[in-house]
Amino acid sequence: MKNLIQQLPLLFCFLSLISCKLDTEVSRKTVEGKEIAIDSTINGDPEIEEFIAPFKEHLNKTLDSTLAYNPHVLSKGEKGMNTGIGNLMADIVMEQANPVFKSRTGNNIDFVLLNYGGIRSELNKGPVTTRDAYNMMPFENQIVIAELSGAKVAQLLHYLEKSKSAHPVSGIQIKMDKSFKVISARIKGKPIQPDQNYFVATSDYLQQGGDSMNFFNNPVNLYDIDYKLRNAIIDYFQKTDTIKSQQDDRFIKE
Question: From the record, what ranges are coiled-coil (predicted)?
Fold first, then answer.
């Protein structure tokens, strides 16, 4: 036992040398790799393609089934502070989300604000399908309702002045002068009251500060109604025969 104890320093030294050697050897190892593009030049595996064919057919049939009809092209490229497709999306949120919100809280949504950049595709003239809904909203964004003070709503309007973009709105009417300064803002026909709170429907992405919409930070209350924006669009298409959205006077610059 005494001899073993005396030999411990030598053992530790030996292990240290081995460790150093291993570290040195490992440090000399190199990893090489190359980028392999995944594109149309790669041939599919016939067995895999045969296996997924029925699922692909079913998925395409579901995505391409007609839900509604659109009589004219809706595009965010329209000039002005509101667009037909933006109005459609904001109105869909109001119409689809408000019944859910009211049933859970007893309150109504006062107005809706989405973002111009969130409109990812135009809606072509003709049959409207589930695939169109996915093209319009390819993200998994949820509808949320933020209770904002009148002061926060004033910050929201200032944001719109600075952005100078046709952000989709519903339930609020905004007028700007030629310099993009808000000269009038009414919610459901009434002037905004500084001492009143308002329920504003938007997406969880924007509520969390997306597009620098920081006025949504720290709301009085925040309600998640477990309803994806895309699902609201699909539900609206399913119950609508003909899309009637167009540009109007809800958000204008004089």
Answer: none
